Amino acid sequence: MDLAKRRAVLDEAMDARGDWPERSPWLREAVAALPRDLFAPERLWRWDGHAYVPVDRQADPEGWADELYGSQDAAAVTQVSDGLPSSSLSAQGVVVDMLDSLLLEPGHRVWDIGGGQGWNAALAAWRAGPGRVVSTEIDHSLAAFARDRLAAAGLEAETLAADATTTPPGSGRFDRVIATYAVEHVPWTWIEATRPGGRIVYPWGRLGHVALTVAAGGRSASGYVQGLGQFMADRTGAVPPAAGYSGYAVVRGEGPAEAKRLIHGDIARLESDWDLRFALRVAVPDAVITTGRDEDGVNAWIHDGAASWATFSATGDGRTMLHQGGERRIGDELTLAWAQWEGLGRPEPYDYGVTITPGRQFAWLHNADDGPRWPLHEAAAAASC
């Protein structure tokens, strides 16, 4: 197992695709000095088409290395709980993209949230300097693992086992905050822990990552989508609805459709247009969409993880039949959101942004002040308002 060669191949693949950011040349140096295998456990996990199976370094060194260095777009699963991934070393390309979005400088005080195995904190510490990074991880065993690996790498960074949704670590505000797991709603704690003018980078609802800048008065934070990618969900929140047809079938049940109508047009773009999928996720955030093809065309199965469902069935003549049921008409919500996206000129994900205040969280398009907006979370007013 030649890890040095594998690191070089991945480095070159990122270079060929332009994944090393020009404004943050330090990242390429940091990754070379602190490669991801230094922070990988002896056992990784691979999906075999049916379940996650262990890949042990001693028993299968090449397979273990494949999980780490197969692609700049692939995460390496490091922990499985109840048959599902519960921690990973994020894809190298995504890690680099998020740290580039952080605009990290030497001397910045950094809060790394969801530290996992410690690799993200290590790269941040390489840039910010000794004693400037504090990492929190809710899983005590992962926190201990990260602490050991950071020490072995000779880095002076603190790792704590803590819940980042409640109390920030230490005293004083941070210049930079970065989270490595997906959140639907940003805890106000994160804003309060960041100095005015400071920057918060986090994965938004498993869509991609957003970079917020805290306003001068510290009473809001706002910023654009920076990159795309899927992330594991916050462990302290609700379990996300199951994807795939099986998740739909649970919500759908056995009863008949309560409403049906013919749509003039097919839904083929729902299968492959990720700008559209992003826009629908913003407008109808709880809609879980699964697509598939048969001889008539593209079909889609939708559910909200609770009590509402919809089916878009191709009829073979360029039209689609919509069946739906449950407490709401989620199929109608999606068709309206689709029409709105078309009317807005089919914007790309990078045209969207997010604003956080003590009582409100919303997504917006083009402009936070007067662009179209969609509520994300009508939070109760914070006690400190």
Description:
28% of the residues lie in helices and 29% in strands. The protein has two domains: 3-228, Vaccinia Virus protein VP39 (Rossmann fold), CATH 3.40.50; 244-343, 2-Layer Sandwich (Double Stranded RNA Binding Domain), CATH 3.30.160. The chain is globular, with a radius of gyration of 22 Å. Helix 10 (274-283) crosses helix 11. The strands form four sheets. It has a ten-stranded mixed β-sheet with strand order 7-6-5-8-9-10-11-17-18-19. By secondary structure, it is of the alpha+beta class.
In short:
This protein is of the alpha+beta class.
Beta-strand segment tally: 19
The helix/strand order is HHEEHEEHEHEHEEHEEEHEHHEEEEHEEE
Radius of gyration: 22 Å
CATH superfamily of the largest domain: Vaccinia Virus protein VP39
CATH topology group of the largest domain:
Rossmann fold
Instruction: Give the strand line-up of the largest sheet.
Output: 7-6-5-8-9-10-11-17-18-19
- Gap between N and C termini, in Å? 57 Å
Unreliable parts = 378-385
CATH architecture of the largest domain: 3-Layer(aba) Sandwich
Mean pLDDT across the residues is 91
Q: What coarse outline follows from CA principal-axis ratios?
A: globular
Helix content percent band:
25-40%
Top CATH class of the largest domain: Alpha Beta
Largest sheet: 10 strands, mixed
Strand content: 25-35%
Tally of contiguous helical segments: 11
Domain unit count: 2
Helix and strand content put the structural class at alpha+beta
